[in-house]
Write a structure and sequence with these properties.
Chain A has 396 residues and is α+β, with helices and mostly antiparallel strands. Chain A has helices at 7-16, 54-72, 77-82, 84-94, 105-111, 117-126, 217-223; strands spanning 26-28, 33-39, 42-48, 95-96, 99-100, 156-169, 175-189, 195-200, 206-211, 225-228, 233-242, 252-260, 266-275, 283-291, 296-303, 307-311, 316-322, 331-338, 351-358, 367-373, 380-394. Chain A is built from seven helices and 21 strands. With 836 residues, chain B is an alpha+beta fold. Among the domains of chain B are: 1-147, Leucine-rich Repeat Variant, CATH 1.25.10; 388-514; 707-818, Immunoglobulin-like, CATH 2.60.40. The chains are: A alpha+beta (396), B alpha+beta (836). Chain A: This is AP-3 complex subunit mu-2.
């Protein structure tokens, strides 16, 4: 049983750091070690007394956050304060004397039912509780991630293949690094104990993969087929990395002209975004953001489409472009007013880009088929592809 | 209220009363409360104990477990005996969930009262033998907490842990892998010692212990885990245990983790930084993954920089330097400073690019940001020290900078440079000193010291111009506030200014001050970290954390590997509960044993001719065992969750290829007297679960081969027949299973024309009769062999046993294990068969 004063060291460190992300994840104090993660603008701190693999703790904290998110939809300070009882119960189940106990959300949900409006109403009337009194069967079975007795009237299995492009583009527009990271997120609502197999048209593309524990590793090794008994609900089936040999087709380009002049208090700013190798798909949800140098006081810009915001305090410029129409390329032009007398900043800002392309997996990965064994009904199957920008940066 | 951090202990009695409450939610919250405050109000906490004791007997396993959990969490010394009892009971509970909770309770009790250690170790030992994946992780955790030094407890469970590993829940995996790393370090020889060992000579060529191999093989798939902690644990295991050639596999997985949350990145990069010093080649293909994005937090940027610097070599240096150029223009000044240092390190490590780097750094001197300039000055100073002669230009340039730079460290560096190489810049040096003397009183301490140094050096080389200045500076220093500076001034004055008193030292002053100074070596701060176990907290902090255990060095001689052989009695000791559970898994485990078992019997059968041959056979048997383990482990991996399906596939895989196997001709049952005892024990070690298997492999003459009764003495009117499966190929038909019968005539009359007749074939079952026995004298025993083809089913074969007077209806039902035939298969073949 520790006192709250241990956390003081953490608050100290937090004050010292200029930005929230710069707080060191591990802080040694005279008697304890503080490990923290930063998510959703909240710090989650774990206090440790003795040697333990730090990743063990950090991974667990992330899992806690994931669970909260799963339970409450969002994970915010208000949410945690409102549901403090459930939070306590969940933490109690997840951890026993510092060792993780049940971390699968399927099991937790059986132990402690997530709060919904309906249930709150029912509970107040009947006086029943959120706490399940049966030991979740999954805990003991050979498939700890799935609960038994799942029933649905509509049996459906959806898979989203989402690929993210991480890239650094240099000033002249040539690619410094580009890689594709993908995940397959699944939403499976199937009755009973289905045994699914998913096969790809071109499994060779996948260079490095990590699986949900439900995937049978042996079959992947020998046949490159994903065979698994899925957990119930939403889960991440697989995340993968596309081999580095394949050249990545960058779907967008950015033309930019940002210049500061010495002595003058005005700078020119111009950005144009255009499509490139999109395989006939439209690019949507384009967002351009850029951290301007401290010397920039304000910006007067006119976009050809979308809206833009410049925050003079954080110096963050963001421009919500929306869809790109290849006939009429979106652009943002205007001037920057600089601090008078200050010399010109030595770095041009980097531009971060976000976009989405529906119905396209940029690596060319295709799911061949999905089969189900073990149950009799015919499930409804669906597969969606999407390409997104991951950490996509353009240096100027 | 607890959540708000208020002390709620005043309400203790009121809350504790609620512990008997029916409402489970209230109960749970009371538990939370109890655990928090029981230590302060020990007497009152005792009130609740009886509720838990009742809970421990509850039929619902969930309630049993949670009662134990809370009971063990209440930190009241008086109840230690109660806790001990509860843990012991729970350790042999039916439900693995309760046993898991018992394992969790062990460290809690240990931290409360460490006198209980011996008893707790007993419980741990018992739980270690548990075969459920649920318990394994928790008990190893308890082991690590309570008795990490008792490595001998692991021996017997080592192989089991390796094989179960993949099915243990992820948190348990981390703990087990870390424990096994330490274990392997003490038990196996280093795979990388070949190079050194060769010079020592007379060492046997290194052969990796099969168990060592088993560990490496079974952990490898875990690199694919979604849990970063597991991946890291495997990575450190490979880094510490695997032969050099195999360590590379972890790089890919670690690079993958870099996509994860920034905290994970931070830890992983720390470890990568250490690894990249030792094994640079490992991460070189992933160089680009360490490029820095402007959105990374500063600490990540600096770590990535560290890795990039470590990875730099002649071939990739140009790309890296180009990257560095972009980084220098970053807005994050800490990061820029780190980049400049990194450039300096690259320049020292790779001679080829030193000039380019130097030029680049000199350009930076005209940067507007003072920090950048200061940092480059410091780095340039270090670089110049390596080859001062050619660079007097740079020194001159830097001398000019003294007017502008305010950062003390940089000023000090420049002064030092000028002083050191004042011969190269004879005109400027006194000028600089003059300026510095003017501003002496306003300088920082570190600069003042360097001014004194400069003055002394100038005095020695160029006393004409600088004598007065030096005197002036020394006088100023004499009345400085800092005693360090006063001391230095006094010391230097005595040393360089010739007076009557000063003696011999004076002559050497020049030598003292202007001696050739060795260039500093710029090296990574991660250099000395590798003695910590990777992935540990201590490694991250570069300091020993509480409870950190050193990774032991490799032993010179491998300890006896046989300690890991599982001994048969261990299993018979298992409680009946264990066995019941066993049965569920039986069809799956036993068939692979069935496979390994007969393999051995064939092996040893050949070797039994003489004692010598038999001794020679031992290593081969071990090999066979290894193969058996392999079959087990490959099947074991994913087969457990799938249940019956692969088990059947395996069964057919084992049974169907029977015909192509050409079995060795049946041998007469060897007389066992010559079998050396060592072989016996070795073979005993081979059987994994079934007691009856092991001795059977040797010979039925040992009497332990399980025989079944076919005809009892009473029903057979004095004639008794027992049968057993001799596990030898039936000579007449490869499809048939040989059944050896012991027919004993207990009557006082002769039994004549004993034979089998009218077999009732049941859908394809065939029986090959034994030759008719003409007569069997009273008290005599005859042994015959018959063959039955069970058609791979466990249906009983029914037939009649006839004597000259009577017919007896009998039936033989084969256990599954007896339907197997030994098959030699390579791993690939096995996989193929399994795939079918």
């Amino acid at each position: 049983v520790g006192s709250r004063s241990v956390c003081d060291y953490f608050f100290e460190a937090q004050e010292r750091a200029s930005e929230a992300e710069n707080v060191p994840p591990v802080i040694p104090t005279p008697h304890h070690y503080l490990l923290s993660v930063y998510r959703h603008k909240i710090f989650f701190v774990a206090v440790i007394q003795s040697e333990v693999p730090p990743l063990f703790v950090i991974e667990f904290l992330h899992r806690v956050v994931d669970t909260f998110q799963d339970y409450f939809g969002i994970c915010s300070e208000v949410m945690i304060k409102d549901n403090v009882v459930v939070v306590y119960e969940v933490l109690e189940e997840m951890l026993d004397n510092g060792f993780p106990l049940a971390t699968e959300s399927n099991i937790l949900k059986e132990l402690i039912k997530p709060p919904t409006i309906l249930r709150t109403v029912v509970n107040t009337i009947t006086g029943s509780t959120n706490v399940g009194d049966q030991l979740p069967t999954g805990q003991l079975s050979v498939v700890p991630w799935r609960r038994t007795g799942v029933k649905y009237t509509n049996n459906e299995a959806y898979f989203d293949v989402i690929e993210e492009i991480d890239a650094i583009i240099d000033k002249s527009g040539s690619t410094i690094t580009a890689e594709i990271q993908g995940v397959i997120d699944a939403c499976v609502k199937l009755t009973g104990m289905p045994d699914l197999t998913l096969s790809f048209m071109n499994p060779r593309l996948l260079d490095d993969v990590s699986f949900h524990p439900c995937v049978r590793f042996k079959r992947w090794e020998s046949e490159r087929i994903l065979s698994f008994i899925p957990p119930d609900g939403n889960f991440r089936l697989l995340s993968y990395h596309v081999s580095a040999q394949n050249l990545v087709a960058i779907p967008v380009y950015v033309k930019h002209n940002i210049s500061f002049r010495d002595g003058s208090s005005l700078g020119r700013f111009e950005i144009t975004v255009g499509p490139k190798q999109t395989m006939g798909k439209t690019i949507e949800g384009v967002m351009v953001s850029s951290q301007m140098p401290k010397g920039v006081l304000n910006m007067s810009l006119t976009p050809s489409q979308g809206t833009h915001v410049f925050d003079p305090v954080t110096k963050l410029l963001s421009w919500d472009v929306g869809k790109i129409n290849p006939q009429k390329l979106p652009s943002l032009k205007g001037t920057m007013s600089l601090q008078a007398g200050a010399s010109k900043p030595d770095e041009n800002p980097t531009i971060n880009l976000q976009f989405k392309i529906q119905q396209l997996a940029i690596s060319g990965l295709k799911v061949n088929r999905l089969d189900m064994y073990g149950e009799k009904y015919k499930p409804f199957k669906g597969i969606k592809y999407m390409t997104k920008a991951g950490k996509f940066q353009v240096r100027t | 209220m607890i959540a708000r951090g208020k002390n709620a202990s005043d309400l203790f009695p009121a809350v504790v009363k609620n512990v008997a409450c029916k409402n489970i939610e209230v109960k749970k919250l009371v538990y939370v409360y109890l655990v928090r405050y029981a230590e302060e109000q020990q007497d009152l906490a005792l009130l609740s104990i009886s509720t838990f004791q009742r809970g421990l007997k509850d039929p619902n396993q969930l309630i049993r477990a949670s009662a134990l959990r809370v009971l063990s969490s209440i930190r009241v010394p008086i109840i230690v005996p109660i806790m001990m009892l509860a843990i012991k009971e729970a350790a042999s509970d039916m439900s693995p969930y309760v046993r898991k909770t018992a394992a969790h309770a062990i460290p809690k009790l240990y931290s409360l009262d460490s006198d209980q250690k011996d008893q707790l170790i007993e419980v741990i030992e018992k739980l270690l033998a548990d075969k459920t994946t649920l318990v394994a992780g928790s008990v190893v955790m308890a082991f690590e907490e309570v008795c990490p030094e008792r490595i001998d407890l692991i021996h017997k469970n080592y192989r089991k842990l390796c094989n179960l590993l993949i099915d243990v829940e992820e948190w348990g995996q981390v703990v087990i892998i870390n424990m096994l790393t330490r274990y392997a370090r003490t038990q196996f020889l280093s795979p990388n010692q070949n190079a050194e060992a060769a010079s020592l000579a007379k060492r046997k060529p290194y052969v990796m212990d099969p168990d060592h191999r088993l560990l490496l093989r079974n952990t490898k798939p875990l690199l694919q885990s979604r849990n970063a902690a597991v991946v890291m644990a495997v990575a450190q295991l490979y880094f510490h245990l695997a032969p050099k050639a195999e360590v590379g596999v972890i790089a890919k997985a670690l690079v993958r983790l870099l996509r994860s949350h920034s905290e994970v990145q931070y830890v992983v990069l720390q470890n990568v930084a250490t690894m990249s010093i030792k094994r640079r080649g490992m991460f070189e293909p992933y160089l680009k993954s360490f490029y820095i994005r402007s959105t990374d937090p500063t600490q990540i940027k600096i770590l990535k920089l560290e890795v990039l610097t470590n990875l730099a070599n002649e071939t990739n240096i140009s790309t890296i330097l180009r990257e560095f150029q972009t980084y220098i223009r970053s807005m994050d000044k800490d990061f820029v400073a780190a980049t400049i240092q990194a450039i300096g390190r690259c320049a020292t490590n790779i001679g080829k690019v030193r000039d380019t780097c130097l030029n680049g750094l000199v350009q930076l001197l005209s940067n507007r940001d003072e920090l950048v300039v200061a940092e480059s000055v410091v780095v340039i100073k270090k670089l110049l020290q390596m080859q001062p002669a050619q660079h007097s230009e740079i020194i001159k340039h830097m001398a000019k900078l003294t007017d502008n730079i305010q950062v003390p460290m940089a000023r000090a560096s420049i002064l030092w440079l000028i002083g050191e190489y004042c011969e190269h810049v004879p005109k400027i040096a006194p000028d600089v000193l003059r300026k510095m003397a003017k501003s002496f009183t306003n300088e920082e301490d570190i600069v003042k010291l360097q001014v004194i140094n400069l003055a002394a050096k100038l005095y020695l080389t160029n006393s004409k111009q600088s004598k007065l200045l030096t005197q002036y500076v020394l006088n100023l220093a004499k009345y400085d506030q800092n005693y360090d500076i006063r001391d230095r001034a006094r010391f230097i004055r005595q040393l360089i200014v010739p007076t009557e008193k000063s003696g011999a030292l004076n002559k050497y002053a020049k030598k003292l001050f202007l001696a050739q100074k060795p260039a500093p070596i710029l090296e990574s701060s991660f250099k000395d970290r590798d003695h910590f176990q990777l992935g540990s907290l201590s490694h991250l902090l570069n300091a020993k954390a509480v409870g950190y255990q050193e990774l032991p060095d490799w032993p010179d001689e491998a300890p006896d590997p046989s300690v890991r052989n599982v001994e048969v009695p261990e299993w018979t000791k298992c409680t009946s509960r264990e066995k019941r559970k066993e049965k569920v898994e039986k069809p799956f485990y036993s068939d692979s044993e069935g496979e390994s078992g007969p393999t051995e019997s064939a092996d040893s059968g050949e070797g039994l001719g003489s004692t010598v041959g038999c001794q020679a056979e031992v290593p081969r048997v071990d090999e066979g065992h290894e193969r058996g383990m392999l079959a087990w482990s490959t099947a074991g991996h994913r087969a457990v969750p799938t249940g019956l399906w692969p088990a059947r596939a395996l069964l057919t895989a084992c049974v169907s290829p029977c015909p192509p196997v050409t079995p060795p001709p049946p041998q007469p049952v060897p007389t066992s007297n010559i079998v050396s005892t060592s072989l016996v024990t070795d073979l005993e070690g081979l059987t994994l679960t079934d007691t009856s298997l092991a001795p059977a492999l040797l010979s039925p003459a040992l009497g332990a081969l399980r025989s079944y009764e076919l005809l009892h003495r009473m029903t057979g009117e004095g004639l008794s027949v027992e049968y057993c499966f001799s596990r030898r190929p039936f000579p007449h038909d490869a499809h048939m299973v040989a059944v050896q019968m012991q027919i004993c005539n207990n009557t006082d009359a002769e039994v004549k024309s004993l034979r089998i007749s009218a077999p009732k074939p049941l859908s394809g079952t065939r029986i090959h009769e034994f030759p008719e026995i003409e007569s069997l004298a009273p008290g005599d025993t005859a042994s015959v062999v018959m063959g039955i083809d069970f058609c791979d089913s466990t249906q009983a074969a029914n037939f009649q046993l006839c004597t000259h007077t009577r017919h007896f209806y009998v039936s033989i039902q084969p256990p599954v294990g007896e339907l197997m035939a030994p098959v030699f298969m390579s791993e690939n073949e096995f996989k193929k068969e399994q795939g079918e």
